[in-house]
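Regression check, NAP case 343:
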Amino acid sequence: MPKSSRIRVVLVGGSGYAGFEAIRWLLRHPNAELVGVFGPASELGPMDGFYPLLSKTVALAQELFTPDKVAATQADLVMLCVPHKVAMSYVPALRQAGLRVIDWSADYRLADARVYEKWYCPHTDPAGLAEAVYGLPEYFAEQIKSATLVANPGCYPTCAVLALAPVLRAGLIQPEGIVINAITGMSGAGRSASLRDHYPERNENFEPYGVGNHRHSPEIEQTLTKITGKQVSVLFQPHLCPMDRGMLCSIYAEPTGKGVTAADVTTTLQAAYAKAPFVRVRTGLLPATKHVAGTNFCDIAAEAAKGKVILFSALDNLIKGASGQAIQNMNLMFGLDETTGLY
Ligand SMILES: NC(=O)c1ccc[n+]([C@@H]2O[C@H](COP(=O)([O-])OP(=O)(O)OC[C@H]3O[C@@H](n4cnc5c(N)ncnc54)[C@H](OP(=O)(O)O)[C@@H]3O)[C@@H](O)[C@H]2O)c1
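Current build output:
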């Protein structure tokens, strides 16, 4: 339970793209209050200096992160909106100070440190890793409620797993040979500029990247395997799309029998998400990034063609893929309805 009537929230890395979105959700949240924003020495100052849109709404300045300063805010929850490796260097001290944490990076998403180390870097907090709960509310709500450390899922894994999990669990598609074709808007890469993201490079330019080696592949496989109890293997192919935000997956899978129809898959998805407030199973309308932009929804639809089952899913990478999902997790952690302050 929070120390006062409202959940006191601190953001670390609040000047980043996903952190900025969290600020906007927290401003409208009836039971939460932003009490501090912290960042690195290179990124300090009033929040409306980073985002002029926040003038006259957020008086806070981003201060230099130290665990002591965060603890002094009397926060109930810290959201770490910082890159991987940085997050796990902060988590132990924050937890020692008695703070609950939602980490948005990959540092606590892969349960096996050896898998993490294969895809990222040496893991420096195995104790935290052993306790972390994977924060996909549609599947792990009960564990999230009592968690002290939640690993907020990646945007691509959220989009792909929500579409695939019920269909795999129902045995309608094979757990191998699944192809996930995905696109992301450019905010998925964060706020730091690189040549690849420079306007002349990106404008009017749609291209694949990370062929066979994107770091979200093991997270997708781990999560689907955990949810379905089957060893799941996917070929995940991401693409960069010249739009600010949004994510779309087109997923191709082999049906387990000739009789599997799009209607069977749709019925299975509808049953799985009947009580999930932020998953919409679409019929007669395929998911599109504009249908979910600015919201915490993930839209899903099923089709069948040329002997394959095809699943489509779309979400806003900065919201259901990051900040909105984190608020949904926060709501569960503090005993609120998971939809509080979200739409
Ligand atoms: N963008 C998305 O769609 C998305 C989706 C899902 C998950 N995530 C995850 O969410 C986290 C934030 O992503 P983002 O897109 O908002 O990235 P971002 O725009 O690059 O923001 C990251 C923020 O963290 C700050 N930071 C970097 N090193 C730090 C340190 N040592 N101490 C404190 N703050 C530090 C950055 O400051 P500087 O600018 O000075 O480096 C920046 O303000 C990442 O872990 C990312 O993987 C993002």
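Comparison notes: The pocket of NAP is lined by residues 12-13, 15-19, 39-40, 42-43, 65, 81-84, 86, 104-105, 154-155, 187-188, 190-192, 317-318, 321-322 (CB under 6 Å). Residues 155-169 form the longest helix (15 residues). No diff flagged against the previous build.
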